[in-house]
Amino acid sequence: xxxxxxxxxxxxxxxxxxxxxxxxxxxxxxxxxxxxxxxxxxxxxxxxxxxxxxxxxxxxxxxxxxxxxxxxxxxxxxxxxxxxxxxxxxxxxxxxxxxxxxxxxxxxxxxxxxxxxxx
Length: 119
What we know:
By secondary structure, the chain is α+β, with helices and mostly antiparallel strands. The chain has 4 helices and 4 strands; from the N terminus they run H-E-E-E-H-H-E-H.
């Protein structure tokens, strides 16, 4: 594993110690790669993923040509917020998974807020 990824995972572990998703307020974990973004809503008390969506999914993939830029992260955030609200997730704890809060992570988070999610 590359040094940069090891440092990110170390930050994620440190951040995750202070975050704990419950059934009322689950943890929203975001993961980004060079070409895609994925997000999961997790209930840590049961250890279950309640809902997940990625830019690789067929319904989402058609919306934009490339999923590795800020515009597509914003569009994915709006889609994720809409689907999550339909499934009953409005209040979440945003877990950036050790990534810096800028670029695609920031635009994804702002799009979630614009879509009506609270964190």
